[in-house]
Specification:
- The complex is a heterodimer of chains A (183) and B (111).
- Chain A contains three helices and ten strands.
- In chain A, a hairpin with a 2-residue loop joins strand 4 and strand 5 (90-91).
- Chain A has helices at residues 17-30, 35-56, 149-156; strands at residues 4-10, 61-67, 71-78, 86-87, 90-91, 104-109, 114-120, 124-130, 159-165, 170-178.
- Chain A starts with a strand and ends in a 5-residue tail after the last strand.
- By secondary structure, chain A is of the alpha+beta class.
- Chain A has an eight-stranded antiparallel sheet, with helices on one face.
- In chain A, helix 1 runs antiparallel to helix 2 (35-56) and helix 2 packs antiparallel against helix 3.
- Chain A has one domain: Heat Shock Protein 90 (2-Layer Sandwich), CATH 3.30.565.
- By secondary structure, chain B is an alpha/beta fold.
- Chain B has one domain: STAS domain (Transcription Regulator spoIIAA, 2-Layer Sandwich).
- Chain B has helices spanning 26-38, 56-71, 83-91, 104-109; strands at 3-7, 12-16, 20-21, 43-47, 53-54, 75-79, 99-101.
- In chain B, the strands form two sheets. In chain B, strands 1-2-4-6-7 form a five-stranded mixed sheet. In chain B, strands 3-5 form a two-stranded parallel sheet.
- In chain B, helix 1 (26-38) packs parallel to helix 2.
- The chains are: A alpha+beta (183), B alpha/beta (111).
- Chains A and B meet through helix 1, helix 2 and helix 3 of A and helix 2 and helix 3 of B.
């Protein structure tokens, strides 16, 4: 098959969230994406749209979905509040200061992983997860995080980035999921 | 009301009512579940039988309640997770933090 893409508009309300998830997954089915991969993508869509409801402050969000033979790329674009990250107790401001470029920061960690972000040139941040262990022991519950949104997306995706477009003053979350990846 | 409590002789089953367990009900869910802990129940089964999906806000509320329960020497176990929710718990390793049973009956039998 070739490549395909479609744009979806989300009105940033919780009531419309799951309907939009279903609408996008129906499109992925039409593109021939397997049920297994769609199952993996559902929580990514839920968290991207939840992020829009909770944090963007914009009245709508554009979701651009592109499918090719290898990957599904989901871009979430809004003109609301830029992503808030803290570095050493101070909020990261956009555009990123030259002092912070190429720095790796920990966003949060718990008993099984650390969620990190790499600051990059061009006002980009890429997220990645480190230190998953495979212990079968019950964790110390006090060390379990209560913040799962970015962790869920990053754990599913082969890459997950945020880009703040200073010229257009818009926020771009870019989630790439391999059609071959098995979780 | 986010949960309906079904009291048994030595446990309480908290049946989640909304199909969409998301940010709109996360706070009320946590409050209602913590109230059951305050009432003295020591074994709480949270039933997901009605739930289609959960989001990170709801998961955060669930973990917060688990911490509250443990600090009060109570236990929270889960039942009735559909395939998508079960996979999500595995993805972020929450299946290590909670005991998960296929049905409420199985969860009550394990006590």
């Amino acid at each position: 098959m070739g490549s395909s893409s479609r744009d979806f508009t989300f009105n940033n309300t919780a009531d419309a969230l799951y309907k939009k998830v279903v609408e996008i997954t129906v499109y992925l089915e039409e593109c021939g994406v397997s049920a297994r991969v769609i199952d993996n993508i559902k929580p990514v869509l839920v968290e991207l749209l939840t992020n829009a409801v909770k944090h963007s402050g914009a009245i709508s969000t554009l979701i651009k979905v592109a499918v090719d033979e290898d990957n599904i790329v989901i871009k979430k674009i809004d003109w609301g509040t830029p992503l808030m990250l803290n570095i050493l107790g101070r909020q990261l401001l956009w555009p990123i200061s030259a002092n912070f470029k190429k720095e790796i920061i920990s966003i949060y960690n718990d008993f099984n992983c650390t969620l990190k972000a790499k600051l990059q040139a061009g006002n980009r941040v890429s997220f990645f997860v480190e230190d998953f262990n495979d212990t079968h022991q019950m964790p110390d519950i006090g060390n379990v995080t209560e913040h799962f949104g970015l962790l869920i997306i990053t754990s599913v995706c082969t890459s997950f980035e945020y880009h703040y477009d200073t010229a257009g003053a818009n926020n771009n979350f870019i989630a790439t999921i391999s059609r071959q990846r098995t979780l | 009301m986010t949960i309906i409590a079904d009291v048994h002789s030595n446990a309480v089953v908290a049946n989640i009512q909304p199909a969409e367990a998301n940010l709109t009900v996360a706070d009320s869910f946590k409050t209602e579940l913590n109230t059951l802990v305050d009432e003295g129940y020591k074994y709480l089964v949270v039933s997901f039988d009605n739930v289609v999906y959960v989001d990170s806000s709801f998961l955060g509320a669930l973990v917060s309640s688990l911490k509250y329960a443990i600090s009060n020497k109570a236990e929270i176990v889960l039942s009735g997770l559909n395939k998508d929710i079960q996979n999500l718990f595995g993805l972020i390793r929450l299946d290590k933090a909670f005991k998960i049973y296929p049905t409420t009956t199985a969860a009550l039998s394990a006590l």
